[in-house]
Amino acid sequence: MTGPDSPADWFRVHRRTADPRLRLVCFPHAGGTAQLYHGWPPRLPEDIEVLAVRYPGRQDRLAEPCVEDMAALADRITRALVPYLDRPVALFGHSMGSAVAYEVALRLEARHGTTAARLMVSGRAAPHRARHSGLYEEDDDTLIAGVRSLGSLGSEVFDIPELRELLLPALRADYRLIETYRPSGPAPVGAPVSAYIGDRDPGSGRDRASVAAWAELTTADDFTLRSFSGDHFYLDPCEAELTADIARQLEGVGRNRKSIAFP
Q1: Which residues form the catalytic set?
Q2: Strand pairing of 48-53 and 119-122?
């Protein structure tokens, strides 16, 4: 596939085996990049292939316009993911990425008959319980301050004028996307769901009930919620613990798979 929705544009693929038993697709947070997941492959079993989503408007897609609408973003990612559906897929998203992963899971089921092996959501309330700050409508300093209130991961780049100018458009676009995404009655997915939070996250860590509400969005009798020590970006210092839990959740997936012929 070539063009604006080619897999090469949308995914950074960490290929550790020619014949993976499953693929783990990882979605970054607002303003985030695929780099967030660069340390995961060595921590996961060698037969799990990691695909990190590369949103437009940052890094080597800097020249492309950002996507500010959830449906448009999820549609494009789903189309690009089709060539990888010859193996089971699990989805992990952090913060904004949780909602994007959920929307992709819905599209995989509705359009391709593929149920994710597991949907893993991190640092975000369920879509019908999420609160909205309106930060995308504020000035640059207020937006940056809001991001910094969640944790310190990578926020020092906004102290460098040149980088601030480059990164702010993607950050603002992502906040506009996630804060205008307000499904009142979201549909459940068929996949089992695992939710993760940092116990000192100013948002989800203080409102576990809104994260636990992800249990309402799966028809599978399988929901787990686990807390880690840390703020909104707990997954950086707790990377080893988190990936160990993910590996455990995915342990049996794809082990007895047969060859899949995907049209």
Answers
A1: 95
A2: unpaired
pLDDT at residue number 110: 97
Q: Kindly state the DSSP code that residue 219 receives in the 8-state scheme.
A: S
**Residue 27: which residues within 8 A CB-CB, separation 6 or more?**
53, 91, 92, 93, 94, 96, 97, 98, 100, 101, 104
Closest CA to 151 of 98, 97, 204: 204
pTM: 0.93
Q: Residue 42: count other Cβ atoms within 10 Å of its Cβ.
A: 11
Compute the distance between CA of residue 254 and CA of residue 154 in angstroms, rounded to an integer: 35
Kind of pairing, strands 48-53 and 11-14? Answer: antiparallel
Q: What is the pLDDT of residues 24-40, one digit of tens each?
A: 999 999 999 999 999 99
Domains and CATH numbers, the chain: 7-249 (3.40.50.1820)
